[in-house]
Protein 1
Amino acid sequence: MNHPRLLASLTTITLALTATAFRAPLASTIGIGSVASSTPMLEPRSGHTATLLPSGKVLFAGGMRRNQDFYKSAELYDPATDKFQPTGDMSIGRVGQIAILLRCGKVLIAGGWIGHGPTDSAELYDPATGKFAVLPSKMTSKRGRPSATLLSDGDVLIAGGGDHDSPGGIASAEVFHAATLKFEFVGAMHFPRVAHTATLLRDGRVLIVGGRGDELNAVAEIYDPQTRHFTDTGRLITARYKHTAGLLPDGRVLVAGGSDERDWSGNLTSAEIYDPKTGKFTAVSSMRDSRFKLPEEAVALESGKLLIAGGSKTVEVFDPAASRFAVAPGELSGPWHFMTETRLGDGRVLLAGGYANNDQSTAQTWIYTPR
């Protein structure tokens, strides 16, 4: 015989457990923000660059529509109107180039792949005129998809990348001097690398992680602008390339995703953190989704969290306080590879372009809005 008080107690417990189970998944997304589709670009692009200008607009340059169909066109996104408009063309079509905002307000565009291979050419975009101007000085090496880091003194470190003879990566590095608009060879990394990451540390040094030469590299290096030398530091727990990295508020560096030597078949969910104080990497909880061909720099949000997008339909946010990832509500329309992510002046993040599981690029964009 059923006892009324027992049934009431069981009902209360069941309701409480149901409510708890319902709240638990939501709790992990509190404060994470959400993703929603936005205005498409004028052209479908992947492997392009996106640079936040002092005006708050974003310069999109180059990239490809599909393999061997490279753009020299550029366009501007205005967050105030949520619209794109054309701007001047680069001198050549290129994909996998670097784009760095200099202290003078102009944007350095250099390297990348052109129709027959990588290039050493460079040009400056001037927001005041909306035009690109070719620099008479060229890089010291032809480089496709090198890393580029704005140093504390305003110069730019350019390292690695692929060339004709070493499509798996070269070791040489150079510095672009913003005052003279010239490139200077500064030596070589200890290992050839392409599809690596380069993160400016708080002390002005640069952490170089991952990438591949003839094979994947687990040994990280640090470039010191004072000595202009590279020195080895800790080893990655998992060798990877085509990953992302981002500086955390406490000065450590998160490294996440990418691929192992199997490339498309070896996408990674794993993540680890480099501590400059110890020179070592330690594992942290993994992302929910495996992903590679990511933007080289994860976006630092105003909250101190890092946003990671690309290679999956989801957008994930790493919380350094909890040392774990959370998936943001909303999805992209595909696992877009080599897309761009740009933090806007108001703290939102513009996600744009990329290609999915073929070489057809998209013009779609999305806005991540933090909470």
Protein 2
Amino acid sequence: MRTNNANMNYLHLDSDFTPFGTSIDFESFTFSGGEPHIKIKEDVKEAITITHRIQSFNDLGMILLATDALRRMHVQEINLFIPYVPAARQDRVMVSGEPLSIKVYADIINSQNFSKVTIFDPHSEVTSALLNNVEIINNHEYVQRCLQSVQGEFVLISPDGGALKKIYKLSQYLGGIEVIECSKKRDVKTGKLSGFTVYADSLHKKTAIVVDDICDGGGTFLGLGKALQEKDAGEMHLIVSHGIFSKGFDKLKEIYKTIFTTNSFRDVTHENVVQIKI
């Protein structure tokens, strides 16, 4: 994920997230009325890449303000690196009255006419279809690195139908590791999960590696973990690209020996979590 362009500058809007070189000098703050603000202190003429971890509309707003400031400094090539794309899960309108949230975010980003928008392991192909000039970094190398610490014979677990296409490509990259398909039921009105199915008679104590893009509250992985236990799974590990973990780790650690994630959304420090920096 490094750039070989010696003329590239970087603007890391999150001081704790610096995936490339040193950031140009700037200051940012929020006015008492809630408005974000930025002041770039260096004269930038060459190409630049803005990086950020978007956790709120203010974070997106800071990107827009930074882009405007750079345009006014006559910077011609501006790239964006946002590993976690907000609202990527809201890629369908399930019930009347809801927005197509991912399109709202994509339209705002596209309005800035970035030379390139780089994202990491998007939730679905809808995200990449909506974003202009998009470059996708898949999860293959990341998962491979996670698996280096897993011992014994293991299988890859696809949590639901939406993950199947990506996990079979991952399996091919890893040399043809066996994939176990699973499914879940969700009430589209309430969002509640009602059941999990593992399409295998038995896992014969093989280590189960559950791979997915996002872990938010963890309900999917808790329910799936119990279903895998009922199918005689051995040791279980969870690999997610974007760790939100809004409900913590207490329940997850009862099922999964190790939880792997990246710092694409936030920094995590926990005894059961291995975080790999992007």
Protein 3
Amino acid sequence: MSWILDTYMAMHPGEVDALGCVTGKPVTQGGVKGRKEATGLGVFFGIREVCNNESVMQKIGLPIGINNKKVIVQGLGNVGYHTAKFFQEGGAIIVGLAEYEGSIYNEKGLDVEEVVAHRKQTGSILNFPGAQNFEKNTDALEASCDILIPAALENVINSSNANKIKAKIIGEAANGPLTPEADEILNQKGVLIIPDMYLNAGGVTVSYFEWLKNLSHVRYGRLEKRFMENQNTNILAQIEAMTGNKIPENQRNLLVHGPDEIDLVRSGLEDTMIKATNEILDCWKANPDIKDMRTAAFVVAINKVGTSYEELGIFP
């Protein structure tokens, strides 16, 4: 992306907004912090919001929240690794991981960082201490879990294996990991499918933030960080003076901290994914004829286009 930027700038010398010609750039070349992990983090935010919806969880027979939910992730590339990492940090249990060389499973949980280190050392995730090797890498898709996250290839869940899926939630982190036939089979089984058309949009969402940064010519947090830290420091000083109690240093650092670029980028991504999730869930709940979340997502998107056209006067 930096090569594309350099070529564009050479062809358009003096263009003030040239940095905005492409996104996904290194931070030193006008990129934004938080872009690398954005897709995986967006997947986490989206699924977490679904799991926090009481009516949806009642419908599929799972408790609210992601804490202690068993998760299997297919793919340990950029998206799969970060998705698994954030789920583990969020309190879920990563019980299965799959890569092209094979798949592993441990119902008590796998440490994502340790698996990645093992793979770097041995060239494979197989034979990870305490884990069971599966004969095929696709076997992990059919193992027992609450949440299955295909984060690598398209069409990995199809008519030949859809009936064997044990997960109650499938989060489509990859593009098109389910075939239409699998979609129909799993919906009939009552499996909740969180569709790729919005769930894996975290990357392009943060690319949008990068574009805004390039057009504004200032990094996120530069104008407000020190102001917020000074204000928070003064508030804590007043609280300590009034109560006579000293706030512990570790808590003080958390409360005083002003937002860095990555804090604001992740906050914007979280807000985007939460709002998108709830828009889709509200549409699904309000329309009994809509049978699944994917259809609801399409309805929300089409309605937005229709509303825009109508307000522009394109429709009579």
Protein 4
Amino acid sequence: MQIVTNQFQKEIKQHGSDGFPFLVSHERLSKYEAGSFLWHWHPEIEITFIESGQMLYKVNQLAFHLKTGDMLFGNANTLHAGEMKNQQDCEYISITFSPRLIYGFYQSSICLKYVEPLTQDLSLSAIHLDYTQEWHTVFAALIKEMIALYENQQNFYELEISIRLQSLWKLILEHYTPANNASAHDKRDYDRIREIMNYVEQHFHEKITLEDISAHLHLCESECSRLFKRYMNLSLFSFLQEYRVERSLEYLADRNETVSGAAEKCGFADSNYYAKVFAKIKGISPSAYRKKLMVQ
């Protein structure tokens, strides 16, 4: 299993309904191939609550080590991915909602004064809530109440959830300091990052060079590399390797596919090199990984 996205890495899954765009889902990393979900984004806010285990959660260029009880507020439109920490599984609850549940209608006073200044602040990709500040405890209580309300769905539950969302948003604003360093330039860079990821998704099975990607973005090669490294905190080459390895997992799960065939279908011309890269990233050889799948 893996998160389904469109060609721009946007998650396709609907978060709630059109009438009430709010979703609570219980997740665990082990249900994803190799215990990780790939980079994606969506226009909704996402709050992650760790029930057990640990997770390395990446948001744009930042990485957070989340432990049991921790929460992460993920801003709208941010690129994010998650993976196991120290090979430990992680169970977590994902709460996803549209900002319009806060502001009601576009360009309302609440929208302009209290919501857009936060959701459009490109410097605020995420907030790690780990109880190091008193307000984190209040935040956690609101989250747990909303989870219970959503799961029981008794009379007025949508209204009760909306009331708590308002309180949660006010709590964030009271402790949020605008950085005032985001700009149209930042937005353009994030759009370029998504375009790079889209290109990799469309061509990962082919030979890809830095020249190909930079030409696609109409950037020089050095600027393309610098841009990706700055925002994603890893090199473009490393991302391409990791993406190819992740995509090869579906082929390894196919009993009729050979390891060398899985390598070739994911852009590795040399199966020995594929095995070396796979072991470096996953800590296990492709053959051993396949054997583990077959006994599960």
